[in-house]
Amino acid sequence: MKVSPIERGANYVVLVAFALIVLGPVAVIVSLAFGPQSASVAREGGWFHPENFPEAWEIGRFGQYMLTSVVVAVVVVVISVLASILAGYALGTMRFRGATVMFYVFLLGIMVPTEAFIVPLYFDLRVVGLTNTVWGVAAPQIAMSIAFGTYWMRTYFRTSSRALIDAARLDGAGSMRILWQVLVPIGRPAILTLVLLTFMWTWNEFLIPLVMSPNGSVRTAPLGLAFFQGQYTQGTALLAAGAVMVALPVVLLYVFLQRHFIKGMIEGAVRE
Amino acid sequence: MSDGTTTIGRSASRRSARSAWVPWAYLAPALLLYGAFLLFPLVRAAQFSLFEWDGLGASTFVGFDNYVEILADQRLREAFWHALVLVFFYAVLPLVIGLLLASLLTRAQVRGLGFFRSVIFLPQVIAMVVVAVTWRQIYAPDGPLNGFLRMIGLGSLARPWLGDYVFTLPAVGLIGTWVCTGLVTVLLMAGMSRVPRELYEAARLDGSGPVREFFAITLPMVRGEITVALTLTIVAALKTFDLVYVTTSGGPGTSTTVPSYEIYRRAFELGEVGVATAVGVVLTLIVFAINGVVNMIGDRK
What we know:
The structure holds two protein chains of two kinds.
Chain A: H1 5-34, H2 39-43, H3 52-59, H4 62-93, H5 99-111, H6 114-127, H7 134-159, H8 162-170, H9 175-186, H10 188-204, H11 207-212, H12 221-231, H13 237-269
Helix pairs in contact in A: 1-13, 3-13, 4-7, 4-10, 4-12, 5-7, 7-10, 8-9, 10-13, 12-13
Chain B: H1 8-18, H2 22-48, E1 51-52, E2 60-61, H3 65-72, H4 74-107, H5 113-121, H6 128-139, H7 144-151, H8 168-192, H9 197-205, H10 210-221, H11 223-238, H12 242-247, H13 259-268, H14 273-299
Antiparallel strand pairs in B: 1-2
Helix pairs in contact in B: 2-14, 3-14, 4-8, 4-11, 5-8, 8-11, 11-14, 13-14
Organism (chain A): Agromyces lapidis
Membrane topology (chain A): Multi-pass membrane protein
Transmembrane segments (chain A): 12-34, 65-89, 101-123, 135-157, 178-203, 237-257
């Protein structure tokens, strides 16, 4: 659309201003992370201190917490994506009594706030000895991811080519073979988006690991950061370095695969 | 609906009648995990909320006393009120900013829009704990915000932003605005890019200016996107936990406590499991109600 040069110029000003508002806090934390740890370090000179990162890694035990995060994320992503593909396939391509009800049952799970079911779940899992284990931290996140994942995969399977399925069926392929040899290979982009979103939500989750591991034996990276903030109060450089390290894995994925993140979160939000 | 079911339709349906269990076999793993770790605990929450229990000893049935407690307890009433204030900062403010921003950017095809989109969406992918730690630094008494205010000669406005009874809740809310605005803007931009250009051209021929254009064309055309944006952000505001836990722990006093924080505090710090689950049930009902209401208004033509 044609607009006046003045409006175009004003638009650039608005664009740059908002980009700066978003990037400002990011710049603050990154510059703190590379800054001097104390006034005495600052006096010795130098404003660039990358050694903050290995030091924070050591003192804040981020190595251990990140490893826990990776283990929890892998468990949640693998189990929930597999279960979602199977369930989405049933709801998206098969017609059967109860299909609509099941769709709404899964949809319900997307809306339920974590804090509503996590309290009774903690006490029930404590009885069976699953609290303070990777499984206890992963299980509620698997359940939540399955609710979204089933919805997401159902949408994909509904739009997948009907003709392709029929052709494969005429070739004598069973429903399992149609799924894994026809639909999953061409659905790789949709599955990749689901994997990325599930990974991000699991990596960033705070309340569930906080509740499910009260003794801290299964402490994920975001929790490690919160506790580091409470315990390590000398200066902000190491805390900032820890914060950057906790955010980095997802931010890096976002930088390279941002289309998947934006598309996934926008389309995943639009329900029928 | 009748796609591809002409000739093979009958045989296919006969086969599916014979193997009616097939879809359920595919559903089973998801349903089992989802049922055991989300649906079942949700039912348990409703059950827990009728008992008084400290989490260790015996529990006593108290009927709806825990729900009465929510109305009677001033701290809990405040928590829900704070959640409502946060809705303004998480949902209303981002929607207003997002509408302005998206309509400006859609009107003129400026360069670098893709890059801009990626930048303003960034806060959505950063762990909330990291966001909270960052803003705690920004709001610190000798932090960058106060430094900036003093530099531009507004030093009298400088204050400990997270230690002030009046300003802490808005300060926390603005972090939510920072996080949510990008998501809302990107959603609205996607909606506005689908509005047919001819509509605007016709309006221009009729001599309407940008403001008329916005209210007559843009706003009605992105109704669906507004609905989605409001649902997402209102629910995010109601579920605020990490942010409050890390920045203020509900303080100073009770000035920033929210329902989610109260659930955690009562269940695991005070041993009031019944009240905590009752707050959880109420929160769930509110979330469902808001989903319903927003979608109903959004669907009305």
